[in-house]
C-alpha cells in the first residue's frame, strides 16, 4: 500500500485526533509496527524549523535539527568496472586471476622446502616414513586444490573415506586423480613461507606473502562503484591461538577475524586480518584506523561507505568528509560526540535528526527498537520511503539495509561448499579459505556481472574442478617395503643382543630363565620392522620369506 507524505507548511497540532493508522512490517523482524499518519507527516516535513542548537559534554560539537544534508561533495557516479580483458565466460580464466601461477609456484617452493626441513629434523623412529615424500609439482598442487573443491561439494566426515572401497563413500574422480597417501602427505607439509628467514615477530609471517598477493589480485581486478561496505568475517578455529576472536553474532563464533571491504553484491575487494594488539601506533581508534587502511586507494572520489555500529563514529564521518568520502551506518548510543537528544526516549514511528557543523548527520528512528544512524550523504534527507515490499522507513535506513548485505553475502556464498576441516592448522585454513572460497566467489561474481552465460555457483565450480584435475593419476613412487638385515654399530661384544625369535621359541618351550641363558646373541637386526628387533640370519629369512 503506497502512502503520500505531507509537505504542508502548517504547524502540527499534537492535540488533534490522530488519523487512521497504517500497519506495516518492521525492517528488523516480521512483527507488525504501527505508525500514525500524523507521526509520519511530522518526520517527513521539509519545512520543519530548526528546533534546537546544543553542545555535547565536551562543549565542542554543536548539533542542530535541519531538514537535509548541506554537503557540497559530489558523489561517485561511475559504475563498477572490470579491469582486465579476460573472457568473462571462461570460469577457469577468471579463477586464475586470483589463483595465479606465481601463487602456485610459491606453494610448490615453500611446501618442498618445509618438507625437506621437517624430514631433516625428524626423529630416527619416523625415518621409515620419510621416503614417502617426493617433491611436489605444480600439476600436483592443481590436482590437490581440485580435490579440495570436490570435498567442498561432496562432504564426508573423514578425508580417508573419499578413497574408501565402499560404494557409499568412494569418489571415483578423486581416486583417479591422486592416491590417498599422496594427498595426505601434501596436506601435512602444505606451507607458504620459509620458516628459517621469516620475521617471527610478525604473527602472520606464515601467510603474509601469499595473503597480500591474493588480496592485491582482488583489488586489481575491479574498480568499485559508488557503494562499498565494511564488516567482520570469521575463519572458524577453536584451537589455541593468541589472536583467536569470539563474535557471538556470527555463524562461526570462534576463529580468526577478518576485516573485509566488499561490494554490496558480494565481491570481496580488500581484507585485513586481526592479529591481536601490536606495537603499531593507534591514531584515533582501532576500528577507525582499520577503516582508513581498508579504504586506501578509494578515497577522494565521492563513494559511500556503509558500516555497522562497531566502526561508525562522528570522528570517522568527519575525516571521511575531508577525504571526499561519505559514510552511512548504525551507531552505538554510547559513542562520543553524539547530540544529547540521542538518549531521549521516543514513541514508535518517531524520528529525530541533527547535523553538526562538519556535515555529519545523526538520526534516531524508533521501530521495534531505537535505531541510531550517522550519515553524511546529501541524498539522505531523513524522509520516509516505501520499498517494493511495502515497508516504510527513513531513506538512510533503507539504503543501509540494501548495502550492508555485501560481507554477509560473500561469507554465505563461500560457506555453501566449504572444504575446511577441524584438523587443519589455522594458517592453512585461512589460505584455503582464500583460494577455495573467496577467490572462487569473486571469479563467479565477475562472470555473473559481465558474462553472458547463465551459470550458477555450483556449475561454475564444476568447470574449474574439471580444469584443475589432470586426466592421468599423479605418479607417486611407493617406498620400498623390502626388509634388509643390518648390523649394529660398535664392537660385537658391546652391541650384541638376543635374537628376538630364538628367545620367543625357547621361552615358550623351557621358560624365560632358560631362554635368557641359551638364546643366541647377534649383532644383526631388521631396520624396517617395528622396534628394529635383533634377529639372526636364520630367523630373519624365515620371518621375511613372504616379503
From TrEMBL:
Residues 90-444 form the PiggyBac transposable element-derived protein domain. It comes from the Eukaryota. This is Piggybac-derived 2 (Agap012114-pa). It comes from Vairimorpha apis BRL 01. The lineage of its organism: Eukaryota, Fungi, Fungi incertae sedis, Microsporidia, Nosematidae.
